[in-house]
Design goal:
- The protein has 12 helices and no strands.
- The chain starts with a helix and ends with a helix.
- The chain is mainly α.
């Protein structure tokens, strides 16, 4: 593999839609309400969110290898550090660069949005590093789904909305919660796939602590919950009704979760769930204007 291909694999491009979706939806929701879009803050927020996720992914890649979590028994896609394509030190430097870029973009965003954006940015940076690092990493605890819900759904959506409007609204909170639920569902698939190797490594995710059937139902509830919130926004005239038709896609994903065996085949479901979050954000954003 070329150097570019290795680094591209390390940043996990298939998951980057999780950072794009909330910024897109939060910005479009504000645009639909006030009739204008502040382009530079929206682009800066988008790039900062992507940088934070890249930094988190790279940090996770290096730390899991150093801790012995990623072994030859891993069912997920190969990791650059574990495969020996990159050294842990170089991946850690890559993570630091990504977090540094996010911090630099954050300076501009703080100038636009003030102290609430400063607080959100600092917490996001610390949480991104703590997800895999430290003596008690979030990724190895039952709090992983909550982390993803807050930072890859609620926080990013509401923060993007605030940058455009200087306020927080109930539609923004509900919209962020929708994307947070779907992002958490992506993690559920990841942890469900890895529950046996995680247990051996001493990780205590919900998938490890609960019966396998519980993870399947958790996934189903997380994907169905956004449609209840979507119905509320439609009933109050915020958005058109037709994004509700996406429930057909959700039913298909849920059936896969309940029928596919635990193994590498779940990698397809994980990628499909991540793509669904981006699809949901795109369709919802379009429905705000149609």
């Amino acid at each position: 593999m070329s150097g570019f291909s290795v680094w591209l694999s390390a940043v996990r491009p298939k998951t980057l839609g999780l950072s794009v979706s909330p910024v897109l939806l939060g910005s479009c929701l504000a645009w639909s309400e006030q009739g204008e879009l502040h382009v530079l803050p929206a682009l800066a927020a988008l790039l900062a969110a992507i940088c934070i996720q890249i930094g988190t992914n790279l940090h996770n890649d290096a730390v899991d290898t150093l801790k012995g979590t990623d072994t030859d028994d891993r069912l997920g896609p190969p990791r650059a550090t574990a495969q020996g394509w990159l050294t842990p030190a170089s991946v850690q430097r890559g993570a630091a660069m990504a977090f540094g870029c996010a911090f630099a973009l954050g300076i501009y965003l703080v100038m636009v949005g003030g102290w609430p954006i400063l607080l959100l940015g600092l917490v996001s940076l610390v949480a991104g590093a703590a997800y895999s690092g430290g003596p008690r990493p979030i990724s190895a605890s039952p709090l992983g789904e909550l982390f993803v819900f807050v930072f890859f759904g609620l926080g990013a959506t509401v923060g993007s909305y605030y940058l455009q409007t200087d306020q927080i609204s109930m539609p923004a909170l509900l919209s962020g919660s929708m994307l947070g639920f779907i992002a958490a569902a992506v993690l559920v698939v990841n942890n469900y796939r890895d529950m046996q190797t995680d247990a051996v490594a001493g990780r205590r995710t919900l998938a490890v602590l609960l019966p396998p059937r519980a993870s399947q139902w958790e996934y189903a509830l997380l994907l169905l919950a956004p449609f209840l919130l979507l119905w509320l926004l439609w009933a109050t005239g915020v958005v058109s009704w037709w994004p509700l038709m996406l429930v057909v896609v959700v039913i298909y994903l849920i059936l896969q979760m309940f029928t596919l065996p635990v193994g590498t085949v779940l990698n397809q479901l994980l990628a499909g769930t991540a793509r669904f979050q981006l699809l949901f954000s795109l369709v919802f954003s379009a429905a705000l204007f149609l």
